[in-house]
Design a protein that fits this description.
The structure is a single chain. This protein is an alpha+beta fold. It has one domain (16-162). It contains three helices and four strands; from the N terminus they run H-H-H-E-E-E-E. The chain has helices at 3-9, 18-78, 82-93; strands spanning 100-109, 115-116, 129-140, 153-162. A four-stranded antiparallel β-sheet has the order 2-1-3-4. The longest helix has 61 residues, at 18-78. The N and C termini lie far apart (98 Å).
Length: 164
């Protein structure tokens, strides 16, 4: 008989063999792990879903902002009007373009921020600035409804640049 088998057959103070006591403890540990997993898994999955939803909204907002900036760059490079700039923004959005509202406006303002007619001069005979502004808006629907957050939530991006 080997050393191991001799030890496992001896009874301890409780009258149980070492194998019986160790096996009972293993079952208790496995049961504890199963209970802990059952309690923590929904919480972890809920947090993971929130991270994925938040990440999706941030990605959509970044894509919207990038498309607006691309439209402004197009306006600077070509001097295009609002209709062409709106098409450039829609083109930069690719597959999300259908669900996005884009508004490009071109206007003039004086250096002090007051609105001005583009044909007139501002105070001190300064010509007004030619400004292009683009506003874009789209709805983002999260994967699951979250308390306190509207579904769908509206993502917005806006930017403006001085053309001349």
């Amino acid at each position: 008989m080997t050393q191991r088998s001799k030890r496992s057959t001896r009874a301890g103070p409780s009258g149980l063999s070492n194998d019986a006591r160790t096996g009972a403890r293993r079952g208790t540990r496995a049961g504890n792990a199963a209970v802990e997993t059952a309690l923590l898994a929904p919480v972890i999955l809920f947090l993971l879903a929130g991270i994925v939803d938040y990440g999706g909204a941030v990605r959509e907002r970044m894509a919207l902002t990038s498309a607006v900036r691309s439209g402004l760059q197009y306006a600077l490079d070509t001097g295009a009007g609002p209709a062409a700039v709106e098409l450039a923004v829609q083109g930069a959005l690719m597959e999300e373009a259908e669900s996005t509202t884009v508004a490009a406006t071109r206007f003039c303002e004086c250096p002090d921020g007051d609105d001005a007619d583009c044909r007139d001069r501002c105070e001190d005979s300064v010509p007004p600035y030619d400004i292009m502004q683009i506003d874009a808006r789209r709805d983002y629907t999260p994967l699951m409804p979250w308390p306190g957050i509207d579904s769908p939530m509206t993502l917005e991006a806006s930017a403006r640049v001085r053309i001349q």
